[in-house]
Design a protein that fits this description.
This protein has about 950 residues and is α/β, with parallel strands linked by helices. It is built from 32 helices and 26 strands. Belongs to the ABC transporter superfamily. ABCA family. CPR flippase (TC 3.A.1.211) subfamily.
């Protein structure tokens, strides 16, 4: 076992230890995990139940295809007949349509108030004046260009008829022969063209309009009665010198119409290119700048067939004369079966709800990391040899596995219960998206953990981010996505916030599944990422790049801020420095400190000189050498700086237990904190096995054990599991590990009665203390720090603990702080009394008592009448006696040892008993407690005077 512990644990050994600990910890938190995973399950079930309820409400006669009762056979019996002709507009959408109605092809014509006019920013004077908008008389403008202007003018003239003769017996055919248009917004199908049911007129584009040119027509289209007004609109054709001019004018003519819709002021534009009598070549700009209710652009039908027909007819008439014409009678949709009205809530509400579902992992990971930081468990693991590499790898993989299982259960369960959000979108695309985001989310949690030290604060901030992101995404960010006029760069800038990137990706999945379900097509596929409207590609690129940037920043900040005492912001430059494992020679500044040391006691000065000599030696048998170390806390709120440690020098060989005594606030814990890497010294340094605590703590940790002042334990791990974990970090394996754990448990009296396998959270304070001591000693560390190890122990446990520490002193250096003088005398080979940040004296207990305790304490209790007799007796024994206590007949005196003999004291007491009643008396040698009090009071008095 000893041979194994001499070698630091390898990377993979440390990783294995942490992984085993995390798996064990996870098993103990199975109920928490079930509650975590149940949240998306409950939400998905709620969506399914709500969707079933809504569908049941939608599946009512008022929402189904209309029906009536008819006598179809003439026998007087009523037969139910359903069809489009018996339905209102709400019912018609669910009817089967074996023979779709035929609708005249239409142009997309802007409404009168949005048609092109002359303005300050459009540099074309041939447009009509803006006053036509108030009169509703603005023409419908067409633009044209080409290599041959004269040919272009002929073709454009042929496009627009001079008049329209409506045949009331065949109004549909009459509209087909004219140039009909509408300013309504087309739907995703042509079963019921909104132009014929919107209540707004149908426009007929003519070369000239006359008064009273509005005609009212009625016709029956597929058994559907239609009543419409046909209104004449003047077609206004304007020549432009190039296609770039047309592009510029179309762009400038882009105007907002109704609150969530946009239109273009121009009906259409034509570039006849190099067309002539032998060649017809044309490019057509068509008006499709509307936006439908789903928030997606260009997923509805586009009214472009009539524009193509006009150009084709115009060229044929140019070649064959005005009598030649291609009749474009109608457009119609494909037949459809009967359907039921359904609403896919998972796609409609999934973006917001699923954002919350995925984001709730963030505070879970964040609080787990902050918990280790707040409880100082991370630094505790580090002090027992766990490197940053294994910690980051295992912790990251651990959270990634938890997140992956969480998301896998979420997607599988959502798919099993039939949510279209999952089933219609490509699973491989979903996998890549979720995998990228959970990695980015874990990296963000590591970065955020460096900014928090309190788990409650971290939890509150984390859940504020969860719900705030969802609400801002649903009620702010989504409107920017749907607003096609909003700059794309602004959208990308907002997506740099990971929560909005997640929301945008879920929004794209939602829209794809909703539209696919409505149209009967597929959801999102990999090929859809090339669509300029689809933002999934840019979101995944942003998340991928941010993942690497954030994980790098998180590791850097962790090294500078969170790893014990922290490192220099330029710590990565240390690889260019020459590393040294031997003691450094003292700097010239040590000579200045020597002047101060000379004012100290000779034993302290001697220790300082010993340190100077050791620093000059290339190798040393001393495990710990402290070189004039200081710790100063800067003053705040007008208070002066606090000197916690004032130039301490100390040398500890292997096999020695050094005890630090001192009152509360003397600086003992501050000194221990510097030695174990929790804080950095203000000046000076210390060397542990030849390694500098300022720059080489990672190397020191591999051979160090710590029993901190406060127990740093995982509440849900047992005592045995704690020792197994820390034993593995010290490179113990197999039977050696099992044996070391059992011996440690037996040594601190935690082996019997099932205590070893009880969770540490159920331990008493004394049991936790004993476990902390066992942790500090497992794995044969060469240097051990124990900060008040016996606090809270009963006498029996304390004696057992002392025996453990006594056995542990062999071949290792131990620094122990305590307030128990008995413990210090039993365990410590040497003692140092620390007062107000300074070492006042140093030596073994006998030396200190001899040096500072050169007197006996004589105590006698009599009646009050004989107090004076007692004092006379004592003065007779020693004229230099000093009364130190007096109350109700009891008096204490300090008697210098050189003034008296013990036999004389006994003789004087026997003589006194013959003269008056003596209730009690005693003669005691100076205790270590007396020495401590004397030194502490003297030092404090000196500091007050100075």
């Amino acid at each position: 076992m000893a041979d194994l512990s001499l070698r630091p644990a390898s990377f993979w050994t440390q990783a294995n230890a942490l992984l085993r600990k995390n798996v064990t910890y996870q098993k103990r938190n199975i109920k928490t995990n079930i509650r975590l995973i149940s949240f998306p399950f409950i939400l998905c079930i709620l969506l399914v139940a709500l969707q079933a309820f809504i569908n049941s409400q939608l599946d009512k006669p008022s929402n189904n295809c209309g029906c009536t009762c008819r006598d179809t056979t003439g026998d007087g019996k009523c037969e139910k007949v359903c069809g489009l002709e018996y339905s209102d507009l709400d019912q018609a959408a669910t009817c089967p349509i074996p023979n779709p109605p035929e609708w005249p092809p239409l142009l997309q014509v802007p409404a009168p108030e949005y048609r092109a006019v002359r303005t300050d920013f459009i540099p074309f004077t041939d447009l009509p004046n803006e006053s036509c908008r108030s009169l509703g008389s603005c023409p419908a403008t067409f633009l044209f260009t080409g290599n041959n202007q004269s040919l272009g003018k002929i073709l454009v003239k042929n496009m627009v008829s001079t008049s329209l003769n409506i045949n009331t017996s065949d109004a549909v055919d009459s509209l087909a022969t004219g140039v009909a248009g509408s300013d309504t917004y087309p739907q995703t199908n042509n079963f019921l063209d909104p132009a014929f049911f919107s209540g707004v007129p149908i426009y007929n584009v003519q070369s000239q309009c006359f008064p009273n040119s509005t005609v009212s027509v009625s016709f029956l289209e597929s058994a559907i009665p239609v009543q419409e007004e046909v209104q004449c609109v003047q077609g206004f054709s304007l020549w432009r010198n190039s296609s770039s001019e047309i592009n510029d004018e179309l762009y400038k003519g882009y105007r907002k119409g109704n609150p969530e819709r946009k239109i273009n002021e121009i009906v259409a534009a034509y570039d006849f290119l190099n067309s002539n009598g032998n060649r017809f070549n044309v490019s057509i700009w068509f008006n499709s700048t509307y936006k439908n209710d789903s928030g997606q652009t260009s997923i509805g039908l586009v009214r472009v067939p009539r524009s193509v027909n006009l150009a084709s007819n115009a060229y044929i008439q140019f070649l064959r004369g005005p009598g030649t014409k291609i009749i474009f009678e109608f457009v119609k949709e494909m037949p459809k079966p009967g359907t039921k009205l359904r609403l896919d809530l998972s796609s409609l509400l999934g973006t917001l709800f699923f954002t919350w579902v995925i984001l709730q992992l963030f505070p879970v990971i964040l609080t787990s990391l902050v918990y280790e930081k707040q409880q100082k468990l991370r630094i505790m693991m580090k002090m027992h040899g766990l490197g940053d590499g294994p910690y980051w790898m295992i912790s990251y993989a651990y959270f990634l596995l938890i997140s992956f299982i969480y998301m896998l259960c979420f997607v599988i369960f959502g798919s099993v219960i039939g949510l279209k959000f999952f089933t219609m979108n490509d699973y491989s695309l979903q996998f890549v998206f979720y995998f990228l985001y959970i990695n980015l989310q874990i990296a963000l949690a590591f970065l955020a953990a460096a900014m928090f030290s309190n788990i409650k604060t971290a939890a509150v901030v984390g859940y504020i981010c969860v719900f705030g992101t969802g609400l801002l995404g649903g009620f702010l960010f989504q409107f920017f996505i749907q607003d096609t006029s909003f700059p794309r760069g602004g959208i990308i800038a907002m997506e740099l916030y990971p929560g909005f990137a997640l929301y945008r990706g879920l929004y794209e999945f939602s829209q794809a599944s909703f539209t696919g379900d409505f149209l009967g097509t597929n959801g999102m596929r990999w090929g859809d990422l090339s669509d300029s409207v689809n933002g999934m590609a840019e979101v995944m690129i942003i998340m991928f790049v941010e993942w690497f940037v954030v994980i790098f920043l998180a590791f850097y900040v962790d090294q500078v801020v969170s790893s014990g005492s922290g490192k220099s912001p330029l710590f990565f430059l240390q690889i260019f420095r020459k590393n040294t494992s031997s003691f450094r020679r003292p700097s010239l500044q040590r000579q200045d400190s020597k002047v101060f040391v000379q004012m100290e006691k000779p034993d302290v000065l001697q220790e300082s000189e010993k340190v100077e000599q050791l620093l000059l030696e290339p190798n040393s048998s001393h495990a710990i050498v402290v070189d004039n170390i200081k710790k100063v806390y800067p003053g705040r709120d007008g208070n002066s700086a606090k000197f916690a440690v004032r130039g301490l020098s100390l040398a500890l060989p292997r096999g020695e237990c050094f005890g630090m005594l001192g009152p509360n606030g003397a600086g003992k814990t501050s000194f221990i904190s510097m030695m174990i890497g929790l804080t950095k010294p203000t000046s000076g340094s210390a060397y542990v096995n030849g390694l500098d605590i300022r720059t080489q703590m990672d190397g020191i940790y591999t051979s160090m054990g710590v029993c901190p002042q406060h127990d740093l334990l995982w509440e849900s791990l047992t005592g045995r599991e704690h020792l197994l974990f820390y034993g593995r970090l010290k490179n113990l394996k197999g039977s050696a590990l099992t044996q070391a754990v059992e011996e440690s448990l037996k040594g601190v009296n935690l082996f019997n009665g099932g205590v070893a396998d009880k969770q540490a959270g159920k331990y008493s304070g004394g049991m936790k203390r004993r476990l902390s001591v066992a942790i500090s000693l497992i794995g044969d560390p060469k240097v051990v720090y124990m900060d008040e190890p016996s606090t809270g122990l009963d006498p029996a446990s304390r004696n057992n603990l002392w025996n453990v520490v006594k056995r542990a002193k062999q071949d290792r250096a131990i620094i122990l702080t305590t307030h128990s003088m008995e413990e210090a005398e039993v365990l410590c080979d040497r003692l140092g009394i620390f007062v107000d940040g300074s070492l006042q004296c140093i030596g073994n207990p006998k030396e200190l008592k001899a040096r500072y305790g050169g007197s006996y304490v004589f105590t006698m209790t009599t009646s009050s009448d004989h107090e004076q007799d007692v004092e006379i007796m004592v003065r007779h024994l020693s004229p230099n006696a000093n009364k130190i206590y007096h109350i109700s007949g009891t008096q204490k005196f300090e008697l210098p040892k050189q003034d008296i003999r013990i036999a004389d004291v006994f003789k004087a007491v026997e003589n006194a008993k013959s003269r008056f009643t003596v209730f009690a008396w005693g003669l005691a040698d100076t205790t270590l407690e007396d020495v401590f009090i004397k030194v502490a009071r003297g030092a404090q008095a000196f500091n007050v005077l100075s």
